[in-house]
Amino acid sequence: MRKLIMLFLLVTGLPFILNAQSPVERVLQEVEKNNTTLSALRSRVEAEKTGNRTGIFLHNPEMDLYLLNNRDEQVQRTNFNLVQPFDFPTLLGRKNQLSRALNQQLDYEYLQHRQDVLLEAHQIVIDLIYLNALGRELEIRLEHAANIARSYEAMLNAGEVNILEHNKAQINLFNSRKASELNAVERASLLARLQALNGGIELEVSEKEFPVPQIPGVFAEWFEEAAPSNPFLLGAAQQIAISRQEERLARAAWLPSFSAGYMVEALPAERFAGFGMGISIPLWENRNTVKYARLHTEAMQQRQTDIETRYFSQLKGMYDQAKSLQELSLNYRSMLQNLDNSGLLLKALEAGQISLIDYMLELGFYYEAVNMMLETDRQLHKVIANLKHFSQ
Q1: Which secondary-structure segment (H or E) carries 275?
Q2: What is the H or E stretch that residue 96 is in?
Q3: 336 vs 70, 130, 132, 148, 340, CA distance in Å?
């Protein structure tokens, strides 16, 4: 567990994404602390580490005791044997090294599961921020729709508009209300998923603005810094280390094993006692084990190269996608800031210069642009979350 803590401390240097005390990070810290899957996994890791420490000690001593009687001659003989087998010291050392390598791999496997859980929680938080921002927009739209509906209700009663115009205003209000309700339903569903990840403890995400993303300028340099702390790449490298330890253990298994013992044979008139030694020479039992271990190591090396290549290509695609989404998001913001006609459209509607259907149609273009901007921000931060958790 000490090494596991040190690995956690390594995951601090990603030069972009979120501040350590940001609301998103606080949620992730709570999930890591309360997640039942990670809690159970931590217990399993400790149990398996203990299991890996078995089988690395001396063999159990063997003791035999025989009481033999000859009824015809009424002679009693006692035989006592005590034997302690032991492996060649090199073999014991290889077993210890393999045990430590297997325990290190368990730490990496835990970090992989931790990464998956935290990434899932991060993605949910991003969706919640998006829904919060969209919900704020939908509340504004609902308020506008309600004001228009009340105005057209009054104008219908005054005979200034016909029933068709009045019904359009009511349909617009209905659609706005249902859009807000559906947003609330989806938000409640995401909060329930987040609560499940947090061990059943409720969490609230009230942020309505995404943090400003900061993407590094050179992907290759970032990848070179982030790769050494990625648990999947570390795990792949550790598989090679384990395979090499198994290869060394297989070679050491060809060394002879020994035994030392003490034997007593006692008769009524005489007694024999002495020490002895034995040797076991591995001639057939370990056949092909070294060859298999060597081929397995070569396979693990090829697997690591494949994983690194795939990760580099996948993350490079995400990096390029993040850059494009960031530029698109800035374009949307600039466009919406300069081309917001919602106020002018409302004045034109109130002055009778445009019809209600024209107003809703023109306003719909603006609403669609706002929705696309928020969706772009959501996708951008989801890509950034994947990049962030690559190094955790």
Answers
A1: strand 271-280
A2: helix 89-157
A3: 109, 18, 19, 23, 5
| Tokens found for residue 307 | 């994983």
* SS3 of residue 160 by DSSP: coil
Hey, what domains does the chain have and what are their CATH numbers? 2-390 (1.20.1600.10)
- Give the tens place of pLDDT for each residue, 266-308: 777 788 777 877 776 766 666 677 777 788 888 888 888 888 8
Query: What is residue 202's DSSP assignment?
Result: -
Q: How far apart are alpha carbons 342 and 350 in whole angstroms?
A: 12
Q: Kindly report the length of the chain.
A: 392
Residue 129, both tokens: 């921020």
> How far apart are the C-alpha atoms of 8 and 28, rounded to whole Å?
14
How far is the first Cα of the chain from the last one, in angstroms, to the nearest whole number?
17
Nearest Cα residue to 31 out of 322, 374, 381, 392? 392
Runs of H (alpha helix) within 207-355? 219-226, 231-252, 289-338, 342-350
3-state secondary structure of 170: helix
Residues forming beta bridges with residue 80, ordered by sequence position: 65, 264
Q: What are phi and psi of 285, to 5 degrees?
A: -65, -35
Whether pLDDT at 1 is above 60: no
Its pTM stands at: 0.80
Structure tokens that stand for 212 in this block? 């400003």
DSSP tally for the chain: helices H, then strands E:
10, 4
- Alpha-carbon radius of gyration of the chain: 36
Residues 192-224 have pLDDT tens digits of 999 999 999 999 999 999 888 878 778 888 888
DSSP state of 210: P
